[in-house]
Amino acid sequence: MWAKRQQREKTLTLCTGIVTDARCNGHDPGQDVPEHPRRLAAIDQVLARLNASLVRLQAREARTAELEWLHSPAYVRRIAATAGQKPVALSGDTMAGPGSDLAARVAVGACLEAVAAVVDNRLTNAFALVRPPGHHAEFSRAMGYCLFNNVALAAAFAMEALGLKRVLILDWDLHHGNGTQHLFEADPRVLFISVHQYPLYPGTGHFTETGRGPGEGYTINLPLPPGWGDGAYAAVFEQVVVPVARAFCPQLILVSAGFDAHHLDPMGGMEMSADGFAALTRCLMDLAGELCSRRLVLVLEGGYHAQALADSVAAVLTELCGATTHCYRDLAAAADPRQVNNVLTRCRHVHGHFWKALTRTNRQWFG
Ligand SMILES: [Zn+2]
Q1: 0.90 exceeded by pTM
Q2: d(CA 51, CA 103)
Q3: Which of 6, 12, 235, 269 is 20–30 Å from 346 (CA)?
Q4: Catalytic residue flag (residue 136)
């Protein structure tokens, strides 16, 4: 009996899933666009060398009805009409080629499969390594290299198909997740927390964007000046993400996991490292363990330096399956209060009346 339980617990600790699919690379915006098939190729190379126990999930195409949970039928038809056609510009920065509709549907379907496996306890946690990314995609508009909003549809799936009542989406991509915010800004079932460089593309994500109607308070934006690294990010997670998540008590944690805040990435001015992303992952693993039976699903967003992207994904996967244990609290303790105090104070002023837990956090950071 004891041996059986030990075996079961051992199995649980090792159950990290990945889902990726070559069809995602059917979306090819051209050599000059940073969001390119070479991103997944770099990740594939590092996966082949990764000495970690990972379960491979099979992706599937998302169905039209699933896409229409959050996108307009006309928009879904518009993307479908590009299949097999010559490349067309959907917006100033986003195109669709002959394989883009299938790639985008598979990217969404991969995320839904990851959520299904984690919510029904076949896996402890999972990482959907997909493209095109999703967090800029709006109800009826492609933008920022994104066609369908992968992470938002994963949340919708958890609620519509699996019956969950509360989902936390944490977005640590360099850029603000405007699409995800807008799709759920009036929905109190989804708590959206975004840490992003500001000002920067797409221009949204100010402190004062806090949700609307019944969703008021369930959007938390932490716009950061450039130059933030592992310690400052860890401090914000410790001082804002942890207490607010505990108060919200999600049944699933989703992550818009972009790696363009890495210090080598050409897109912005952040100073994160691969180990820093692993530490943020550990923070969310701890929260998921405490609050929601360890249910944690990461979805790839940006990350445009191939080696930094691959190294960061490897560090996160190694953490997810328990082969490493990074300590975000040690990083947070070493952060420079002069760098983080302004953001933490603004956040408390905007959100303290709604999230009382913010006013009870460690005072040393709030001057
Ligand atoms: Zn980004």
Answers
A1: yes
A2: 28
A3: 269
A4: yes
